[in-house]
Amino acid sequence: MKQKHGALLYHCTYGKDRTGIATMLILACLGVSKQTIMKNYLASNHDLKGTVHKEYQQLKRVTHNKRALANFKRSKSAKAAYLDAAYRAIDQRYGSMKHYQKAALRLSNSDVHKLRMMYLTK
User: Fold this and answer.
1) What is the largest CA-CA distance in the chain?
2) What pLDDT digit, counting tens, does each position of 70-87 carry?
């Protein structure tokens, strides 16, 4: 881990794909519950509702294709099924999130402890 002090900033437009999964993995390392992680993930839908609506209206000005409009909305939505699929894939291939952290992310118990010390408050 190169980051020794301070915060880490990462982001994307909608937070549901790569950034959503990255956030799930980070929060899981910090010991955050699946329920809380899911609530955080789905918050993107509420937080970006105005942006998605505005972009949808702009798209409607250039097309009336119902399939294209439906695909646009679907592509901008965070769904529990997406995060559940990631959890299932990890469980199927690695058996557990903890084993995934060790085998795939190559995080030692010491690494996880350092992350928790850096980013959790008492």
Assistant:
1) 55
2) 888 888 888 999 999 999
Residues 6+ apart with CB under 8 A from 49: none
User: Which one is predicted more confidently, 9 or 64?
Assistant: 64
Separation between Cα atoms, residue 82 and residue 20, nearest integer Å: 10
Please report, as a single letter, which amino acid is at residue 73: K
* pTM metric for this prediction: 0.80
Q: Name the active-site residue from 12, 80, 85, 120.
A: 12
Q: Concatenate the DSSP letters of all residues of the chain into one string.
A: ----SS------SSSSSHHHHHHHHHHHHTT--HHHHHHHHHHHHHHTHHHHHHHHHHHHHH---HHHHHHHHHHT---HHHHHHHHHHHHHHHSSHHHHHHHTS---HHHHHHHHHHH---
Active site residue 29: no
Q: Which pLDDT score, from 0 to 100, does residue 7 have?
A: 72
Structure confidence at residue 11 as a pLDDT band (50, 70, 90): confident
